[in-house]
Sequence to fold (265 residues):
Amino acid sequence: MDLHVAIAVFFFKPTGQIIGVFFLHVFPIIDGDQLVVFANDHEAFVVLAVQGPCSPQVLDAMGLPSDMEYMAFAKALFAGLPLTVCRTGYTGEVGYELVAPDAVAGELWRAIMDAGQPYGVRPCGLGARDTLRTEMGYPLHGQDISPTVNPVEAGLTWAVGWKKDVFDGCDAVRAVKEAGPARRLRGLKASGRGIPRHGMTVVGSDGSAIGEVTSGTFSPTLRTGIALALVTADVSLGESVGVQVRGRVEPFEVVKPPFVTPSVR
Fold:
């Protein structure tokens, strides 16, 4: 008897916010004679993002591949261990994400800082990342998108495989698409000095609640407050709304993200 075994390995890189959701919905699947097994290596790897206009030069100085298309990736070695260079990021800038074994996390960090010194590299935390992704209108799982926010509401219909006959949740999502969503994720730009924050109430011209801020911050680029908010579907682009900020209603304009011009390419 001939036994033919084909093994394919797929490496997923879910963010910290969705690691639990990922393994809740992507359990081992047995389909006939095919066995699919998922292993959680979340703590075995480090992901360091090198973002900004000079990021290609930084990677060149480190001897890592940098010449690749947006959303592509390449394999390399660092300190004798395998490293994956992803032409990705969550900032709206040209950039890369370096995925390496946890054992070389510190050494990789120091190498980035040393190679980037001539280009003005600076360490940034998640607060800076959050500001940049909000300027781009990139949704954050657990805030702007979640198991309770469908892709039609979130404006993510481009990511749904509508041509597939069947997929998880297809009936529910198709029903929302056909009927139209009750709410939509919109961008809000401050007309005054108000700084929106997650969870603040959005109100209409009559003062009634029409939604909630899902992500809000001060934009260093625009020098004003910006937000993503889930609001009733009848709220139109260009419309004026209010956000309840510390006991007062601040004026905002409904706009279409991104708030700044993207530079990912």
